[in-house]
TrEMBL record:
Belongs to the calycin superfamily. Lipocalin family. It comes from the Bacteria. PANTHER family: APOLIPOPROTEIN D (PTHR10612:SF34). GO terms for biological process: response to stress. InterPro entries: Calycin, Lipocalin_ApoD, Lipocalin_bac, Lipocalin_Blc-like_dom, Lipocalin_CS, Lipocln_cytosolic_FA-bd_dom. Residues 1-18 form the signal peptide. Homodimer. It is found in: Cell outer membrane. GO terms for cellular component: cell outer membrane. Involved in the storage or transport of lipids necessary for membrane maintenance under stressful conditions. Displays a binding preference for lysophospholipids. PROSITE patterns: LIPOCALIN. This is Outer membrane lipoprotein Blc.
């Protein structure tokens, strides 16, 4: 998920009560773990100055997720802000919906993987409120053609892609 996407919702004061229901493919939790790079997002106040966002997912032996969101302020080499959360799958039929808790579980958010590459090279994520949307990739840099294909897919899912903000890749 988007680097500060989950934390952005939390810090923005919006608490979801219901998970999104639209999903296109089941998710293999083992293949979902690892690093995701934010490619694009719909605008939100918390990420307004965010660049080179990443989201690192790991799985505990008990099946829960640990999530580390990182956002660099102002530029890809800017100061890093880090948020940590933990969560669990809430839709065991598809494993595509999950709940992440921040601040020791005090604030919880529901998220859904709307679509993903067959090879888990990209995914599209939303929160209960469709104003929150992210395109994520396993690679920090995508070709213009790859980005265009993902944007077209987001548009097909009903998102206003004219408002997408494209994230700066991480500093090297």
């Amino acid at each position: 998920m988007a680097a500060v996407a989950l934390a952005a919702c939390v810090l923005g004061g919006w608490i979801a009560e219901a998970a999104p229901s639209a999903t296109t493919k089941p998710v293999d939790p083992k293949r979902y773990t690892g690093r995701w790079y934010e490619v694009a997002r719909l605008p939100n106040k918390i990420q307004s100055n965010c660049a080179a966002a990443t989201s690192d997912w790991s799985r505990d032996p008990d099946g829960e997720f640990e999530v580390v969101q990182t956002c660099h302020m102002g530029a890809a080499n800017g100061q890093a802000k880090v948020w940590r959360g933990s969560g669990k799958i809430v839709d065991e039929a598809t494993n595509s919906r999950f709940r992440i808790g921040f601040f020791g579980g005090l604030v919880q958010m529901d998220y859904a993987v709307l679509d993903r590459g067959d090879d888990y090279s990209w995914c599209m994520l939303t929160a209960s409120n469709p104003k929150w949307f992210w395109i994520m990739s396993r690679r920090p840099n995508l070709s213009p053609a790859e980005k265009a294909a993902l944007v077209a897919r987001a548009q097909a899912l009903g998102f206003d892609t004219s408002k997408l903000i494209f994230d700066a890749p991480p500093a090297t």
